[in-house]
Amino acid sequence: MKRLIAVAAAAALTLTGCSLEQSAAGGGDTVRVVVGYQSKTVNTVTAGTLLRAKGYLEQRLRAITDAGGAAYEVEWQDYDTGAPITAQMVAEKIDIGSMGDYPLLINGSRTQAGERSRTDFVSVTGYNPKGALNMVVVPPDSPATTLADLRGQKISASVGSAGHGTLVQALTRAGIDPGTGVEVLNQQPQVGASALESGQVAALSQFVAWPGLLVFQGKAELLYDGAELNVPTFHGVVARQDYTERHPEVLDAFLQAQLDATEFLHGAPLAAAKLVADGSGLPQEVVYLYNGPGGTTFDTTLEPSLIAAFKDDVRYLESIGDFAELDIDGFVDDAALRKAFAERGGTTYDAALADTGNATTGSGNEVWVDGQQQTRPAADPTELLRIVNQARARGETVRTAYVLDAELGTRWFANESVWLRDGDRFLPFTTEAAAQRYRGAHPGAVPVSYDQAVQEVRT
């Protein structure tokens, strides 16, 4: 029976040209799976960088081979955005890919016309319930303090990306026509980063981890936190139906491996950040900003709140054109993921679906002292400042510190936050606009610098 399946799959190879190839040893057919991922997009690491580094997919497939099944070969293809992954899936050259919410919609829209390119949205990698994974940054010397200050300016974004989607929605809410009120330059993230640094654009709107990276490098300041939209933003996995119908065991192995990677990240977020940093070239401090406590919620389930936001994203995609109508309910398919949960035992899919908490435990406020392998947690931002104060008094160097924004809950760098002192409390905000909103309701709050707050906190 297995031989008959192999023969049928080999016959399909003559049509698709990408699913099977003869093994180098000449011992039989090898099932090939091509995975498209984005190494620098921290929100996809459980289906990309971390998954690859841990070797979970290869281990799952090897178990099938060792049990008498076919041999498998995994090819990893790294891209900067979701658009080229979709192009390769349309061409039937990538079998499984991960990308952000807007690119996922575009993927479903553009692949649906082809019988062998059509995809299913099969799992989520990670999400932020308020939208904080996408942000708008400006140069450090920019006079802009709100989105309204960008009217008539050039903004870099990857059109059709999650970062672009946030920009479109944010500008619309600010009363600025995204099509005529600003000039959006369609640029890849690294090109946009260079354009921002050289002064060719007034701002850059991108997805995780670009805003955090540029701010960490001292090349940008945060102007707009996507959490202000209070709309979930997420990344997920798509798979070509033609491929997974012929090789359902590969999709099952992939989803099992993604669950393995997710569990590893939950249990050892700092170690996971090191692996992702090594595999992506990103600083570990930037990776841990997102995958540490209080950051991205890494959860594979297709939660109703995310799908509702997904459907609402369509109108924004339609506003920029080139989007064919998509049956989203037909595109979203949790059957394979439910099967993967059932095979593992333990937590059921429905129980995981109902649990919307972040499984990476901790307050989100942490101090990372240079030379130490663990961070020091703080109950709140004021206690964090006290820990930093004490570390400095001992002559220790603080590698970085993370705090949760007092208004929106976004995890951010403590030294890059906007700080206010309100009585005995010190409150951090991701943006100047957020701090001003707080001061409007609490006129007694006083602006302080980060270093001033560290010095003034009562020990």
TrEMBL record:
Q: What InterPro entries does this protein's entry cite?
A: SsuA/THI5
Is-annotated flag, keyword Signal? Answer: yes
Task: Write the signal peptide boundaries.
Answer: 1-24
Q: Which Gene3D superfamilies match?
A: Periplasmic binding protein-like II (3.40.190.10)
Q: What keywords are assigned to this protein?
A: Signal
SsuA/THI5-like domain boundaries: 132-270
Q: Which PANTHER family match?
A: ABC TRANSPORTER SUBSTRATE-BINDING PROTEIN, ALIPHATIC SULFONATES-BINDING PROTEIN-RELATED
Q: What is this protein called?
A: ABC transporter substrate-binding protein
